[in-house]
Amino acid sequence: MALKSLADTFRLLVITPYVWISGVFACLAILLAYIIYLQFGLVFAVPVAVITIFLIPAFFAGTYGVILENHGSPSVYLKYVKFGYIRCLLPTIFVFVIGLIATGAIVYVLIHLGFDMGVYVYVAMLVALPFLFFFYFADMAALIGARGIFNSLRESTLRVMMGSFSITVFYLVNILVFFLMNFVFSAIISFYAMGSMDFLMNLSDAEIISMGQDELMALAQTSMDTFFASQTAVTASLIAVSVCALFFIPFFSTYKACFFKRLITTVPAAIKKIEEDGEYDSKGRWFKYK
Known about the structure:
mainly alpha, 10 helices, globular, two-stranded antiparallel sheet, single chain
């Protein structure tokens, strides 16, 4: 199921322009926030960034809609943008807030036990992974009919638990693509960082040999440290993030929708206890019995 959904994803990325809208929006939003930061400062850039973050679920809802309906058109996309925005936003906010609170509480306890603040990253990962694993489909569950935040979280959890091997493959594919995204990000940063090594071009072979390996490495490290503390590094990072957003946000959202569409048509009996008064059709739409 996961590999068939991956094939569906690549097909949709080629033939359906609507799935790219979320990536284009995120890319432009990042660049806009950065330009505002350069021109007017952090005070104006932060509100713009927050607003755009809150708008992203609307574009996800549109992507999910054209995939579930199997009909890419402006009317279908806009219908799901308006209908699904709040439905997708609320579970996402709830999961983020609960995860943040849980992480902060655990870190607070560990700090009082004498652990260093560096433990925060590991605790955040420890808390985030289960939340991400079980609640990853909460927004889509809400979009297709789960009423309320807790029902959407429960349905996401049950579908993940019943997905067994296909769910595991699905997450592994996402992890592999995440590492690919990290490679692209690092490659862009490295491209800009190479500019800080221009001093090597001005040194003759004799000067390089006379400096010795340790001295040369120290000079290179100093140049790299200077680069990463410069405005150029910030610019490179923002460009790298925007490029990754442009290409990978459409992939993740489309793959998620394709997989979930197959999941709700192949594992409906396993979660019958939350569908006692209705059922899903082949497009993932939920109908309540009269």
